Amino acid sequence: MTQLIALNQFRIERNNQELLKCDALLINFGEQIFLTGASGSGKTSLALALTGELYAHGEIKFNYQENSIFAKKITLVKQFFHFKNNYGLTDFYYQQRYNSYDADNAPTVRQTINKVINVDNPQVQSLLTLLDFHHRLDAILLQLSSGERKKIQLILALAKPTQIIILDNPLIGLDIITVKRLHEYMAKLAEEGVCFILTGDSNTIPKFITHVLSISAEHNLDKIKLDNYHPDTTTASTTNFNYANLKLPRLASKFTNIVKFNSVTISYAEKVALRNVSWLINQGDKWLLSGANGAGKSTLLSLINGDHPQAYANEIYLFDRKRGSGETIWDIKRNIGFISPELHWNFDGSMTCLQAVISGFYDTPSLHRGATDEQISIAQQWLEEASLIDYANQRFANVSNGIQRMLLLFRAIIKNPPLFILDEPCQGLDDYQAQQFVKLVDHLFADSQHTIIYVSHRADQIPTCISQQLNLVAGVATIIPAKNN
Question: 3-state DSSP call for residue 6?
């Protein structure tokens, strides 16, 4: 028998509407699948249906190999890594990662791996080397960056591979070198008999992929050979952008220096996260912050965003004020529009999408007060221009990850702050949305006095207005010419 997975009269619905469908679809032994479609088209829903976590109409059959060295199971690696602390709690606030008490009550990388497979297992050791992660075994989960958390997910899945492994956006947060090594490792597993089903965008298709599962605008699920696949990134998205009329108001306040670091050093026990970093950001500067996973980017950004307590032990100036001179964390945050994968993980999903955008006025991951008519009007205008107004009254948790990410982008923009920290802002967006977001950044900021600190591992997702670059290697900073220069 050559069939590994068979779908018959298959259909998934969302909110009583058809999300995706196929009359019959076969995935055979030896085939490696790339699952693609617009943001919100149903890729994650299909993955959940295949693993039994989401109800689907029709029939799903698995025909596992009896003589395989791999377990007769299907494994799903989700986009986000959710974990419990030592008290069994899963609800975390963003600043918890820097609070010593809360960090002490969260598990380490070593403890997390040991719950699934012994960390001394040869496969685990091989993956730790592959992902350059040995030195983080005793790190607290709360203090890991998004890329480092992704590495844990991959280690747990690939150290004990099953016959079918679904990876939902496996490259989120990973640097270029790690991506290359991961693809090579997965290719070897594919040769040995593992069937991979990967989601992502068309720029990240590994060489070992043989077929593409494509979800069309008409909700059809079709399988085609990779050689016959030609993505149309100009029309692929379910969301169309019209940003021509979007403009940021002029800034009401001016600063001599937005950020000034003088020989800043941050350490956790024996690990030095930042070493003698000096950095001057003037108003209107557009910076790219780069570096491999674990290089210190998240720590550096937390110092600017007001979340890191060690800021007071260093000479740091934000918006012309020295840290520790009487300012509050809210004095800092009102001047910053911020987005990051970690913020996304910890965001309050019970709000409506409109409320999620409005919360940007208050610098909180939830809305604890009533919004003014003016604030509601501004938020509605942004949603209208982005063709997202139909989502306004839906719960944030019920829309796709791509739509959630767009809402958080507008949440960062809505109050018109002087500084924007855009940390991997295109994560979760489809190809077209990512292209349009980059164009939106250039449209809004190219000639403005707004300041940007932009983080991305993808050269094709960096706006052309970015003109300066700070690169981190093991906590040491170097200013180099930006790639767009």
Answer: strand
